């Protein structure tokens, strides 16, 4: 550790007393959306378990935070325990002392028996730091795409449902040939509880397809942001056509993965998703089928 950090001590978060001070620190650099309600939802109510958290303290003052959110992936007959280093900030007066690096490395070492995989979605500013610490970029190509969907105006079985009415599909009705975040009831009702999200239940040839989406304006054009599609992938494209007709929104934004390599009359790549990983016990980083909702992406 840098000699200037002689007064800095590291400790685990105490959820009973640290949350308010952490959010005061977050308000300095992460914006007003990082509030107590969001923190509790993300790090305490998470169905995968309470987040690990490390703090850097100067005497009794919290000057650095690094949260390690728990996540689970399923596929190939196994459950993969993962953590996602997220929500990190160093107080402006303490930057340049290596606190971010120390918090990250200490956390990965301290919690190493609790995970099989570590992955993260760094921005342009944090990516170089991750690579210097030995992280690797996932080799699979994941593109954020915009597309124009041809609507299907025929007779359909379409309903918008409330989050509490979501019913988990049987595992054999969900694509389980790849590694992904399994859409259990507990996960869906936690991840998409915000009123921004809509859940469309669409029946295509007697198969239930759920589309979780939200609407966003981009340069005066309305888009449906496709957060997650659940069900048999053979019917995903038809379900999107029905969604377009019912919402009268014909442009979509989505993350192209193994099951969403659609051909539309008009589509374009907006940018590429950058995912980095550290420990990868089962060597699955290039097999994970991520969705827009997994990566918290928006236009």
TrEMBL record:
Q: Which UniProt keywords apply?
A: Transferase
Q: Name one GO molecular function term.
A: transferase activity
> InterPro entries given for it?
Acyl_CoA_acyltransferase (IPR016181)
Superkingdom of origin organism = Bacteria
- One matching Pfam family, short form? Acetyltransf_9
- Tell me the SUPFAM superfamilies matching this sequence: Acyl-CoA N-acyltransferases (Nat) (SSF55729)
Q: What is this protein called?
A: Acetyltransferase (GNAT) domain-containing protein
């Amino acid at each position: 550790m840098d000699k200037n950090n002689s007064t800095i001590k590291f400790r685990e978060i105490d959820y009973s007393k640290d949350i308010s001070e952490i959010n005061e620190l977050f308000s300095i650099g992460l914006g007003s959306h990082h509030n107590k309600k969001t923190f509790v939802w993300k790090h305490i109510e998470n169905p995968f378990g309470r987040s690990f958290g490390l703090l850097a303290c100067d005497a009794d003052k919290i000057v650095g935070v690094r949260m390690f959110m728990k996540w689970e992936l399923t596929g190939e007959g196994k459950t993969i325990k993962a953590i996602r280093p997220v929500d990190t900030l160093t107080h402006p007066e303490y930057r340049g002392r290596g606190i971010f690096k120390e918090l990250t490395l200490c956390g990965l070492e301290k919690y190493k028996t609790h995970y099989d995989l570590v992955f993260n979605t760094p921005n342009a500013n944090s990516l170089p730091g991750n690579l210097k610490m030995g992280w690797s970029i996932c080799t699979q190509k994941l593109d954020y795409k915009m597309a124009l969907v041809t609507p299907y105006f025929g007779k359909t079985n379409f309903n918008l449902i409330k989050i509490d009415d979501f019913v988990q599909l049987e595992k054999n009705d969900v694509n389980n040939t790849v590694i992904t975040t399994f859409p259990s009831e507990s996960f869906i009702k936690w991840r998409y509880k915000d009123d921004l999200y809509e859940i469309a239940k669409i029946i295509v040839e007697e198969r239930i397809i759920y589309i979780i989406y939200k609407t966003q304006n981009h340069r005066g054009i309305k888009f449906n942001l496709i957060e997650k599609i659940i069900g048999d992938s053979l019917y995903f494209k038809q379900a999107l056509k029905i969604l377009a007709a019912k919402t009268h929104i014909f442009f979509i934004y989505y993350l192209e993965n193994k099951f969403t390599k659609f051909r539309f009359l008009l589509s374009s790549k907006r940018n590429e998703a950058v995912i980095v990983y550290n420990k990868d016990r089962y060597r699955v980083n290039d097999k994970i089928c991520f969705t827009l909702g997994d990566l918290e992406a928006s236009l």
